[in-house]
Specification:
Shape: elongated
Helix content: 55-70%
Largest sheet: none
Structural class: mainly alpha
Number of helices: 4
Order of helices and strands: HHHH
Distance between the termini: 34 Å
Radius of gyration: 19 Å
Oligomer: single chain
Length: about 120
């Protein structure tokens, strides 16, 4: 089967998947903000703190960053506990290569390694 984008580019593929997951996380964060806004209208101070924290996380996601790279103060962890964001999950990258490249890698493996170094 031909690649959906017409060429092999594992770094582009990683970026595409990250983007799609960030969009889903952004939807979840926006939904939680709306819930907290309703609570804040009736005077819930914790909801107001949650809105402030989640707006920061929303900005982070909107800047094409994964939630796992957002620093979460301990006092705000409770605002994250029930939204189960996809980009907070650990990631394992596996490159599908031919038998000869399984041990030593190939140019695509090297591209992925370089891209991941930049994330650290």
């Amino acid at each position: 089967l031909p690649h959906i984008d017409g060429s092999v580019d594992p770094v582009r593929d990683i970026e595409t998947i990250d983007f799609e997951l960030q969009v889903k996380d952004l939807e979840a964060v926006e939904k939680k903000i709306q819930k907290y806004e309703k609570l804040a209208k009736v005077g819930d101070k914790d909801a107001k703190q949650g809105i402030e924290f989640l707006n920061g996380l929303k900005d982070h996601l909107e800047s094409m960053q994964n939630a796992r790279t957002y620093e979460i103060p301990e006092k705000d962890q409770k605002h994250m506990d029930d939204i189960f964001l996809l980009t907070t999950k650990p990631v394992i990258y596996v490159c599908n290569v031919d038998d000869e490249s399984a041990i030593s890698g190939n140019k695509y493996v090297e591209q992925v390694k370089e891209a991941l170094k930049a994330q650290d």
